[in-house]
Amino acid sequence: TRWLSHPVRPFSRVESRDDFQKSGSEVRSPHLLRNQIESYVKTARLPEVLMICGAPFLGVLLTIPDFTLASVSRASYVLTGILALALHVYLYNACAGLVYDQADPRRRVDPLLGGQLEPAKVLVASLVSLGISLAIFLSLSVYLFLIALGIAMLWFLYAHPRIALKRIPVVPTALHVVGGTLAVYLTCAAME
Q: pTM above the 0.85 mark?
């Protein structure tokens, strides 16, 4: 938790959360909510999450037995689990990499670094996404739950600042191959 309490110096002209709230529109209701949603979408890197879910989606399409209501419902349920797992990975990676990302000028537009989001709240969103994913796969079988938990542990090792396997040459590529393969296997196995 030490890395979560690390003070973040925003890159933007906004110096604190109070300044951010004052600098926004005086009418808080729809604008503040929309800004918060946009900040979470940017932090989660939603377009990348959807792209990562492409291979598991193809796995579901190739293993769906027929296009009945029951099969399409199960496919949607499985893909929701994969999407929640991918969201967890990206949100956790954003929190865990906060200390390193401060030095990266390409990350200046990140809402987490800009002070629009609190690291603790992003971590909670990550854990909620993980909980949803694990609950979905546990409801299908213990075997699928263990595979999903294994994928989450793999990305924990990848992103955690004390372990930081993503900082070791070649290891991130291997982890992406293994993690992607497991995600496709998870969705295919869940459709049987």
A: no
